[in-house]
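Here is an idea for our session: we take a single protein and study its fold together. Start from the sequence, derive the backbone structure tokens from it, and show both lines together. Once you have written the record down, we can walk along the chain together:
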Amino acid sequence: MDDGARYEAVSSRDARFDGEFFFAVVTTGIYCRPSCPAVTPKRVNVRFFPTAAAAQTAGFRACRRCRPDAVPGSAEWNVRADLVGRAMRFIADGVVDREGVGGLARRLGYSPRQVQRQLTAELGAGPVALARARRAHTARVLLQTTPLPVTELAFAAGFASIRQFNDTMREIYAATPSELRAAAGRGTARNAAGGIPLRLAYRGPCAEAEMFDFLQVRAVPGVEEIRGTRGARTYRRTLRLAYGTAIAEVDECGGARSRRISPAGLVCPADRGTDGGWLECRLRLSDPRDLATAVQRLRRLFDLDADPYAVAERLGADPLLGPLVAERPGLRSPGAADPEELAVRTVLGGPPERAAELVRAYGKPLDTADGGLTHLFPAPAELTGADVPAPVRALCTALADGTLLLDAGADRAAAERTLAALPGVGPRAAAYIRMRGMGDPDVGAAFGPAGTADAWRPWGAYALHHLWRAGIRTDGDALREPGDPGAVPALSPQSPPPPTPPRPADRRTARPARSGR
């Protein structure tokens, strides 16, 4: 995509590119998301950046109107397996805040200087600047949604000092922390007992009902629960995080609830019948320093950084998948809030009740049960000497001693090889853990019919979800994951596709009208 195409997206306020790039206006010193509703600046005054951190490093401050720091992340970082892609996933998970640039470099297997040079060359910002942008966004959320004292809030967001916090907020938002809190209004800061209210933004259409269906049949009692009826459900779960624990709640908004309205009075685009929007979320954290990491793990669980336009463009041309993609636009590939938990559940096998027995026997109980949430899922180290099946014990031993790494930015190919070599795991289970636990969208060869891997690349995971959702098994020996609702017909390469429903207009090429900015 060249700058001319980027400017066309800006001129048409094309929300499909929010998070894919940012633009700044040199005459105002402000950077925005492509869909910003402000008047379109002249092309000569516009500069483009791949990340918000790059715009900030160049001296631009965030637009108060479109809040570019709150856009979905780029799907590119989920696809890429190189140093930059892995680094971006690690930074989003808080590695730089917790371990510094040296810790990030060790995890990547490069020197700090190499990491700095590569990120700066490609993204216009190094790891410190990228982590700084993440901290600033976390601080703004805490300022506008909690009554935490500013001093406590600064350290919770990851800043090393109050001065650094104040300087960063003024530089990025052109306002002091107190001014940002006042601008949010009196009614937005809630008591911590109700949880920190958040909006988890996504791009394009989002098949919320199907996503909640997927999670509901796989929910492990004690760790997860679903409340409400279809179209108005709330997914709840416990989380083990770096500094403490959390209880997360995410709402489904399929029409039965009232419309989603932000504190500023903005109606969620999905409720207006247009693409893009957000899921309402509440987080109750034992330590607010875990906020950004918890948010990122929920985003991975619900696959909110996906690019459904790119998925539809690639898979929609397939004679088998095309009708399925048209029938369910925005179908996501749910990931995992905890990849180690997902790996244990996959290797353990059986329905969710089997994993619940493991939770009751070895999981850490919550100080106070919250509805159906009673425990944290047991950590691998707690299962290495437990009375569990031998494959689960071997997996937990490899996770506990560092032989196997399933972190957000870990080497996916190396992890899959290590998993496949463990006794009782095998290549299919390893591929499934890579797809969900490590969020790899380019997984399909282990499950799909022969010859489909290249045709589906790099969105094989979405192809599989479309087939599974349509009740089509890719072969007679398909992997049965925890909570698999039952057997479905096998698919042979010669199987005819389902009937073709009417297909909508191509979303990638049909741009919104360029009405006056």
Notes: The mean pLDDT is 85.
